[in-house]
């Protein structure tokens, strides 16, 4: 099969793909350039690169798109379905990496790590200002989304002596409930109750119509003054204007790995009022960007490509209307 890997990918895994397939690696491809790279490509592998409707329309042989990560909101899934193209993800392999970043953002916000570093690099010593941390022990942390990442975050933050809370749902599987019980998760009735109960809210949900702007003016009206909002999932989860208002009015702080209007590639310019706010500690959508996570994801991508060559589709997230023969 002819494969295009249009993002960074471990060299050892490219070697494995090339043992059985015609594999091209173009890691610096942008969303605008991608349509011109797809002639004859049967399998496209992306991580951060957006796959637009224009790219799908330009593909003359494409049968499968693999998102080397969990979320597929950067892929024109409907357009792919219309053309009978499988869209697949790699769920769970980067859960620990994202959870680790969420914990890091919480600790960094509490201790003012970034501001400490900035002052020292500027040659300014201000121990009085930087000695105002509250501490994590005894806090009430609400986890929104008890999937692989949410559970991994809950398990790690619980080690700091916090009480973990989540919204009760009737359809959770036994494994999730067992892990939640082991952590000591306390369940509340709804998101409003979670906001009123907790002084930290961490969001670990996919981008869907139901999760768009979960963090809106109504929810933020219920959070405690000085509460911390963590979002390492998708930018659509947060109404950015509403969050800025809450930070100004109630001293809410935020640790964010995702922002609206992020550049489509690995580098670029971003003009974000939210990212510039002094109550925000932001990172560059790097939740899954650890060597451990990327190697685990790449292992699964190779397995998925080999399985597809044998007629099996793994981790499909769409419903192609006309599936091309494999």
TrEMBL record:
SUPFAM superfamilies registered for this protein in UniProt: Formate/glycerate dehydrogenase catalytic domain-like (SSF52283), NAD(P)-binding Rossmann-fold domains (SSF51735)
Domain of life: Bacteria
Sequence ranges assigned to domain D-isomer specific 2-hydroxyacid dehydrogenase NAD-binding in this UniProt record: 103-287
One Pfam family cited in the UniProt record for this chain: 2-Hacid_dh_C
Domain D-isomer specific 2-hydroxyacid dehydrogenase catalytic stretches: 3-318
Keyword hit for NAD: yes
UniProt xrefs under InterPro entries: D-2-hydroxyacid_DH, D-isomer_2_OHA_DH_cat_dom, D-isomer_DH_NAD-bd, NAD(P)-bd_dom_sf
Keyword annotations from UniProtKB, A to Z: NAD, Oxidoreductase
Keyword NAD set for record: yes
PANTHER family per record: D-ISOMER SPECIFIC 2-HYDROXYACID DEHYDROGENASE FAMILY PROTEIN (AFU_ORTHOLOGUE AFUA_6G10090)
Family from the record: Belongs to the D-isomer specific 2-hydroxyacid dehydrogenase family.
Protein name: NAD(P)-dependent oxidoreductase
Organism field: Saccharopolyspora rosea
